[in-house]
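Changelog note: in this version the structure field was regenerated for every chain. One regenerated record is shown below for reference.
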Amino acid sequence: MAEEFRIAHISLDEETIIWRNADVEQERRVAIFDLIEENSFKPLRSVERGAKGPYRLHLAVQDGRLAMEIRDNDEQLLETLIIGLARFRRPIREYFAICDSYYQAIRKATPSEIETIDMARRGIHDHAAELLLERLDGKVETDFPTARRLFTLICVLHIKG
């Protein structure tokens, strides 16, 4: 039954992604791979209407809001969740800033400096995942690791050159 409540495929709106470098592309690939490998995702309204998973999820940013298009494995649209991103602006900005510091540190900092930056990065990421869980409450049942990976992908959608 748990196999039913999961994301089997995820895609990002390529038109939303304006720019990305090798580091960002790697983050995107890892987040998608990890998400597909292990996740928990139960869209409550769709399930109430009898929809079965696993699900296909498409993420896009439209008019400053996150659009989560949920389809079944036969590509039938089940629902589109629209989530305001105003509360995510600061965590996204902080996450970008700490990631820049982290990528620079990897190239020239000491291991202890890298570890300190990475701990801060994880803290920001964890806080944002908790925020996403709050925003999905009553709409999608998911777990913390899934929310964390989804936040990474939301960040990728916000990258500007």
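Spot check on this record: The longest helix spans residues 111-136. The chain is about 50% helix and 20% strand.
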